[in-house]
Structure formats: structure tokens, C-alpha cells
Amino acid sequence: MMYSSRRKPVLYFKEDRSFLSRKCTIWKLFGLCILLVLVSLLWVQLTCSGDMNQVSGYSHVPHQPCPVERQASSVDDPSWGPHKMALIVPFRERFEEILVFVPYMHAFLNKKKILHRIFIINQVDHFRFNRASLINVGYMESGNDTDYIAMHDVDLLPQNEDLDYGFPEEGPFHVASPELHPLYHYKTYVGGILLLTKKHYQMCNGMSNRFWGWGREDDEFFRRLKKADLQLFRPKGITTGTKTFQHIHDPAWRKRDQKRIASQKQEQFKIDPEGGLTNLEYKVESRQELTISGAPCTVISTSLQCDLNQTPWCQFS
Predict the structure, then answer these.
(1) pTM of the model
(2) Cβ–Cβ contacts within 10 Å for residue 239, how many?
(3) What are the start-end ranges of the E strands in 124-179?
(4) 93 DSSP 8-state letter
(5) What's the pLDDT tens digit per position in 56-109?
(6) 107 touches 65 (CB < 8 A)
(7) Closest CA to 165 of 67, 97, 233, 215
């Protein structure tokens, strides 16, 4: 076969001299396989430990911890204090974010010596997303071994280790306060990350179940805090401003459900005086204990119930 002067064959074979000769032995093939495995492991290590986000152009998403560097599981160390947090994450189909969130938060809280359990409340029904109801479910299913909750968005990662995730004994503690949150800055904002004792959450009757789709449930909950005469606390002495948190949600890839259907536009600004934990209806479809890069979490797949007479906007049609 003739080759062009501008091209050369990929391999030249020299009789009995090159490593990959035609008389290649089984031992040489075995050695080649070992070499390929070692190169692959080295590449995985460099990919995980290096700043690959900047190389790929997705600097807004932190790299996932390497699977070979397993994190320690959560251990109830008495020296960490008497309180234990239930970190409640309302969730639906945002798998790329949960793969980052769980190991990141587990490592962050362990470093701060915060006893915790991570609950992923996964909505599996066919209704529109209901963040408030999922948080109510998380409260109900969090067990007796936790005494306070963190209502935590899956796309918000704390970057400042001075942020307090401890037991909010004096009153609800809004970690993602308006002056620190990367997007929302109005004074009555209490979304993103909010810590409450279970006693205080019960005093508010949880959150309203009337908010299907995105938004407004936090504003209604602010009114519940005031009605329960609970003082709201926020971080002090944090100097990192709006860089205190990393927001890993990509609106171009996953658009929020901001549609307002039927009378929802008018109803969304009203106070729900009776709804909450007392009229929550749901079914736990499954409960699974998982680990993500060595970080433990509990995934509770939940089907919410909707009264079409009360909130017909829970579905699109």
C-alpha cells in the first residue's frame, strides 16, 4: 500500500524490536493493560482534584468530590453538642445539583461540627412543584433524633465558614439573609436557607400548602413568623457580601415554573390562616438511605395530594 508523503501510518512495526511487535507475548499484553489502568486512575485523580470547572467554562458549578476520596459518614459525636439538625431539601429532578450539594454540605457541616441528617424530599407525583409542602413532609418524616430543621435550597452552597448553622434557640435564623443572598435582597425575604427549632416550626403550623409552582411561599411564611411572635435573626459580621453563597442553578437549562393559573394570581398574596401541617396530605412512596461520594442522605420519595376545589392551580390543565 502506498502512503501519501504528507501522511504516515500510526504505528510502525519492527520485527522483534518494538513493544507491540507481531510476536507480542501474553506478558506484554498484560503489562500494557496494567499501564492503561494506571494512566486512567491518574487521569481520574487529576480531573477530580484540579479546577476542571474553569477549563470547561462552567465556573458556577463546583467540582464534585472524587469518589476515591471517600468522606467520613456522619457520626453522632457527643462532643459536638446536644443538638442535631434535619437538613431538609425539597427536590424534583435536579440530579446534577444534588450530586454536588450532598457531599458539599456534609463536609461543610462536619467541619463545623454540626450533627446533622440530610433529607432529600423527592416529589414524584404529577402535580406542579410544591416547595412548602415538601418542607412540611420533611419536618414530619425527620424523626425524633433531630431537634431543629434547616429549610435549604438545593442550589445554594455556603462559601463562608463563619456562617452559623447551630441550634437557633433564640428564634428562627435566616442564614441566607437579603444582604448576603446572590439574588434576593428585599427585607422580608426568608427563603434560601432558614433554621428553626422544631418547636418554633410547630408554632407556625409549618408552611402553607397552597403554593404550587415557583415562589411566594416564603413571603407567606414570613407573616406566619410574625403571627407566632417569633423574632427573626440574621448573620452578623459576615464581610463576603453577595459572594457568601454560590448559586448553582442554571436558569437557561432549567426554567422555573412561574405560571399563574386560574385564580392563583390573586390568591398568592393572601394569608393562609388554617393551612399547614394540620391539613398536609401526602404519601411516602419509598424511603432510601444513600451515599453520594461517601456522604449519607435519606431520600424520601413523596406523592403530594391536591384538593382541586381549593387549589385548582396544582395542575396545568
Answers:
(1) 0.74
(2) 8
(3) 148-152, 156-158, 173-174
(4) S
(5) 333 344 444 433 344 555 567 889 999 999 999 999 988 889 999 999 999 999
(6) yes
(7) 233
